[in-house]
Request: fold
Amino acid sequence: MEFIGYMGDVFTPINFMLLLIGTIGGLILGATPGLSPTMAVALLIPFTFKLDATQGLILLGAAYTSTVAGGAVSAILLKIPGAPANIATTLDGHTMARKGQGARALQLSFIASLVGGVFGVFLLIFLTPVLAQWALAFGPSHLFWLAILGVTVIGSLDSSSVVKGLLSGCIGLWLATVGFDDIMGAQRFIFHDAVAGGINIIPALIGLFAIPQVITMFANGRKPSETEVLSVERHPIREALKEVAGRTRALSIGTAVGSFIGLIPGVGGQIAGLVAYDQSRKVSSEREKFGTGHSEGIIAAESANNAMVGPSLVPLLTLSIPGSPTAAVLLGGLLIHGIFPGSDLFDNHPQVAWTFINSMLIGQIMMCIFGLYVAGLAARVAQVPNAVMAAVVLGLAVFGSYSVQHSMGDVYVMAALGTGMYFLERFGFSAAPLVLGLILGPIAEANFVQGSMIANATSNLGSYFLTGPLNLTLIAIVVASIVYSAWMEIRHRRYTTKDEAVAKEEALS
Amino acid sequence: MSAIWQTQHVLASGIVAAVGVGVAYISYTAQPAQAFLFPRLISTVFVVLALWTFGKAVIGKTKVGNGLNRTQMIHIAPGLIVALVYIFWAAKGLGFYTATAIAFFILLTLYDPSPHNEPRTWIKRVVITAGFMAVMYGLFAMLLNVFTPREIFF
Reply:
């Protein structure tokens, strides 16, 4: 119950103001199609440099929470999911709004998000300290395999091609080795002055997530927006509360599925929402109503994608393994303030850790309250033309990257990585495993080198890294995730035509 | 699989494979060897996966990735050129704020669907550009104290 002691810190004027800014800004950014939660958080990082670690994390955490929920606004009112996590919400949410019940759909969505989100944060509160202590038992070989696990799980589960996902992870791990070697001081892969000091994480994250979106907007050309914003009629909140309380089955399925999926590194909210929606439909007595504007569909999908947020931070805060691409960006936000996740965070910086986690709890409540009020405004912002959005994101990416170290080299790295990533994505490669490789690469290498030294002194390299129950368990999970994803890929292709696959990829991108 | 689509995949996976081979070559030949222990491990997996992907593209077995069609290339080209000139030359050569304002206005003009022959459209673009620049100046120069290159202009 240590977290209660730090609850008051969330309510200091500056912290609360940042929480408010992050929540309202996140709701609006989340509602904007093309601005994913990951990209929104990456673009916000430069604004945290002047803040202390706690304040910076409060801002980023609030933005993460509310962008996921804000994505429901455009899913419901525009039929465009603000983020992949909101795809399932579109199915019933937009149909309900089309029937003139937009306010009801939004209220159900935000209340379900609140319940799921609060449950998810409580999991974070109770699991994190236990796992952080357990992580103390990990030696260099285990930490090496954990870092590799983080890359391979995201590489295989988050990509449409297992081989290309893993290859993206390898590219990220390689990019992490660019610069000077920490132990020997040797120069490695320095092909331009801009990367002499290595590739800075923040400009790389901004480039990898923002620039492909900018180029995707360019690819749409001068196409006028054809989206129609549905009106939001008044609907009594009390009725929405009663309706959510009466749909306990959909709510508990969504919350449980979202929390479980959030704990698995690499499996994002998009899957959580869709799985919860599907499971809820299967056990519902009114399954024929799903897809026709049924409240259970909205409640299951939205409770799941917000329940995923808290647990996705558990592997990050305990083992330094980000559970999702957005968590990877948050890790970048922690590292720039010189804070390393794990037991160090809870032992030496408990005020930072607990205030941040508490702010996510309060943020869920604020997200629900403000979500209902700013939904109309957010839907209008979501209609900002592509041309304006592309130019704004490009400008923010350039200024944000420059402000990290006041270096043009960082801007060049951001642009080069981002442009390269756009073209790689067009050919089936994925940004998430590349980012994970880039972030986890130094952790993997440091532990690999340390483990090699221990192995040279005590045993041989093979037996140090490949034996022992924990090593074998981690290796088994790495192999199982790859084999499972490969099997699913083969099975999926057997029942999917090329045209269907192309249409699905276009829809998701 | 169309010929152009396959060619694009061969080209993309070929570039990735070439990078992989280059990384592996450097990792196995550069000194001191101790500093390249981890890159050797990575580059070995990198090369195997990259060659696998390249091989599949060559025999036309690539399943994912839609490539780029002609229309997309035509749409992307002007914006990408403006963005790259802005980042790699103008931002430093002209000064951050001047270059950003020019690039922002050109991108708006290129991709805004409003008709070019109406004065209102041009006024709207100027107003949006000025508003964006005011916000950027307020955020970065005044709030965050980021001193951007001024060079020959502001």
